[in-house]
Amino acid sequence: MSLPAQKDNKRYSYAEYLKWSDDKRWELLDGIAFNIAAPSRRHQEVSGELFYQIRSCLADKSCKIYSAPFDVRFSEPKQKDEQIVNVVQPDLTIVCDKSKLDDKGCLGAPNLIIEIISPTSISLDYVKKLALYEKYHVKEYWIIHPIDNTVMVFTLGEDYQYGRPSIFMEDCQLKSGVITDLTIDLKQVFGILG
């Protein structure tokens, strides 16, 4: 497993991150900056279909869906930008609490985060982000493997920990445990023609 390229060995804050003017996409995990590669065509196809299905379901609900690049900042209560060291750009983010939304993105845990893995993001998605999302109480976290056509769903338990993931294959209907009435047709997502 490889990691995305690190900016360097320095630790950065969100305030510093906001000043970067290069064309690259960055995420901060405990202050370490990781460069996020542009998504592949397959990644885009899966993301686009997921966005379409979820957006259609949320049309009459208060929850909103956002696609990357969209900053999700995790912090302790009342931390300022100079103190925030965890900023991610999930492939898809669903937020139901409008008080967490501002012009910069989302401050606090979204209800659901979806990451579509790529060869360079595997370690981040399965290890570092899983731990981060659990720590800050993201209710549901989906990891999508666009080559194997599988989805792992982690749901936050009453003890604020993720238990064993549920695994969904390409021919399944995936029902969210945290977004009412959200059911995803994975055949459509993965382009499986019936």
Q: Gap between N and C termini, in Å?
A: 34 Å
Low-confidence stretches: none
The major sheet is characterized as: 6 strands, mixed
| Annotated CATH topology of the domain at 39-69 and 90-189 | tt1808, chain A
Principal-axis shape: globular
What is the CATH superfamily of the domain at 39-69 and 90-189? Answer: tt1808, chain A
- Provide a count of the helices: 4
Percent range for β-strand residues: 25-35%
Classified by CATH, the class of the domain at 39-69 and 90-189 is Alpha Beta
- Structural class comes to alpha+beta
pLDDT averaged residue by residue = 92
InterPro entries: Nuclease_put_TT1808, Restrct_endonuc-II-like, Uma2
Pfam family, one: Uma2
Protein name: Endonuclease, Uma2 family (Restriction endonuclease fold)
Domain Putative restriction endonuclease: 15-171
Structure, described:
This is Endonuclease, Uma2 family (Restriction endonuclease fold). Residues 15-171 form the Putative restriction endonuclease domain. Keywords: Endonuclease, Hydrolase, Nuclease. It comes from Desulfosporosinus lacus DSM 15449. One of its GO terms (molecular function) is endonuclease activity. By secondary structure, the chain is α+β, with helices and mostly antiparallel strands. It has a domain at 39-69 and 90-189: tt1808, chain A, CATH 3.90.1570.10. Helix content is 21%, strand content 29%. It contains four helices and 14 strands. It has helices at 14-17, 41-58, 122-135, 186-189; strands spanning 25-29, 32-36, 64-67, 71-74, 86-88, 92-95, 101-102, 105-107, 112-116, 140-145, 150-155, 166-168, 173-175, 183-185. It has a six-stranded mixed sheet, sandwiched between helices. A hairpin with a 4-residue loop joins strand 10 (140-145) and strand 11. The chain is globular, with a radius of gyration of 16 Å. The model has no long low-confidence stretch (mean pLDDT 92).
